[in-house]
Amino acid sequence: MTYTETDLVASMERLAGDGLAALTQEQWDQFDQFHAGGSEAVERVLPSLHLAPGMTVLDVGSGLGGPARQVARSSGCTVVGVDVTPAYVDAAQELTHTAGLAEQVRFFCSDIAAFDGSEFDAAYTMHVQMNVADKKTYFAEIGRRLRPGAHFATFEVCLSGETQPTPPLPWSLDGTDSFLATADELRATIQSSGFELVEWVDETAWVRQWFENIGARIGGRRYPNHPPRAPDRRLTRMLNFAIALDTGILTIHRGSFNLAP
């Protein structure tokens, strides 16, 4: 199983060398935005959600809650995060309390198919469906939680051909729980699950540049040969991810959809 980390908040504070309450937002983003593009990727997704204060947004696969808190801060919306990993949900709740957003952002440990919630104004996923084998059911279950015409956005990892990336990866330690689809397959699956396409954008070049900028900041080289150790091999996993993007094995696509009436 890929997501088995424990004591996540304590690990973050140990790596930061300070309590999370003392960190800047930029420092927070280094810990709670575990997806390519970080907080900047969330900014690229936000416009397609058409949010306004008073709306309620569903974050499917919410992880540590970084995107949910960012969406809440920037839009004034209420955000509900759903994730299947208990340790991530516990950490997301603690981080949200520390950030002073507990009344605006909530998290539940649940599979989306078992989640008791509906009539959301918008929803999004960021780097989630790579672990989902039955993608059509997954996206259909998201649609069941939305009101007709609601906006849905994705920022997802896709396979460019038949070659698989080398594990470990952020979403899979050994490849056994990785279920990658091509961009065309993913887009068609979402559409066949009850969504109408608004926009489908290849963000691979932008994400490659983001990885280059990260590499320059942490090591002065594009891909450090010996990244610092982290408790969950996170840097090694991100390194393999970056290489797969750079060599054309993987792509990143941002999608915007509306739930069909």
Task: Write structural notes for this entry.
This protein has 261 residues and is an alpha/beta fold. The protein has one domain (8-259): Rossmann fold, CATH 3.40.50. The chain is built from nine helices and seven strands. It has a seven-stranded mixed beta sheet, sandwiched between helices. Helix 5 links the parallel strand 2 (78-83) and strand 3 (105-109). Helix 6 (135-144) packs across helix 7 (183-192). The protein starts with 7 loop residues before the first helix and ends with a strand.
Please describe the topology of this protein.
Blueprint: H1 8-16, H2 25-32, H3 38-45, E1 56-60, H4 66-75, E2 78-83, H5 86-98, E3 105-109, E4 120-126, H6 135-144, E5 146-159, H7 183-192, E6 195-202, H8 204-219, H9 234-246, E7 250-259
Parallel strand pairs: 1-2, 1-4, 2-3, 4-5
Antiparallel strand pairs: 5-7, 6-7
Helix pairs in contact: 6-7
Pfam family, one: Methyltransf_11
GO biological process, one term: methylation
GO molecular function, one term: S-adenosylmethionine-dependent methyltransferase activity
In short:
The protein has 261 residues and is of the alpha/beta class.
Beta fraction: 15-25%
Estimate the global geometry from the Cα principal axes.
globular
Q: Over the alpha carbons, how many angstroms does the gyration radius reach? A: 17 Å
The number of distinct helices, counting runs of at least 4 residues, comes to: 9
CATH topology: Rossmann fold
Which parts are unreliable, with pLDDT below 50 for 5 consecutive residues or more? 220-232
The CATH class assignment is Alpha Beta
Largest sheet: spatial strand order: 3-2-1-4-5-7-6
GO biological process, one term: methylation
GO molecular function: S-adenosylmethionine-dependent methyltransferase activity
Protein name: Methyltransferase domain-containing protein
Keywords: Methyltransferase, Transferase
